[in-house]
Design a protein that fits this description.
Length: about 130
């Protein structure tokens, strides 16, 4: 349980850093790139927290982001709509290594506020399950 609490705490901290930059209306290139970097590590920490929740609370072992999302949807941690959005979010996360492509970086950045909202809902659901355990 201690590992789970730690994972959730780290995910919440990561999300807080993303929220600082995700809503900037006209970010500089440096601010945009920093927001994308924060998005990367926030997604990583959230799906790994979800992996821990699924293992600890539901006895489900999954090893990568998309199966984690499917299992979260099947176990009430994501709505069907949020699960679809989370799959697209993972695709964006996988594209972030190409942030040197300016058009792609601008496109990903334009979706960060929506991704941050989704990550917040997902994390809140996970925290509630851990709290109820």
């Amino acid at each position: 349980m201690e590992r789970l609490i730690r994972r959730l705490s780290l995910a919440r901290q990561a999300l807080d850093t993303l929220l600082e930059l995700s809503g900037l209306p006209k970010p500089s290139q440096v601010e945009r790139d920093a927001a994308i970097q924060r998005f990367e590590y926030t997604v990583e920490s959230c799906w790994k927290a979800a992996q821990a929740v699924l293992d600890t609370q539901f006895g489900i072992a999954v090893a990568s982001p998309k199966p984690v999302i499917r299992a979260c949807a099947q176990n009430g941690l994501l709505t069907e709509d949020d699960a679809h959005a989370a799959m697209a979010m993972i695709d964006d996360r996988n594209l972030t290594s190409h942030a040197y492509n300016q058009d792609l970086a601008v496109a990903i950045h334009s979706r960060l506020a929506d991704h941050a909202g989704l990550l917040g809902r997902w994390l809140t659901a996970m925290e509630q399950v851990a709290k109820d355990a």
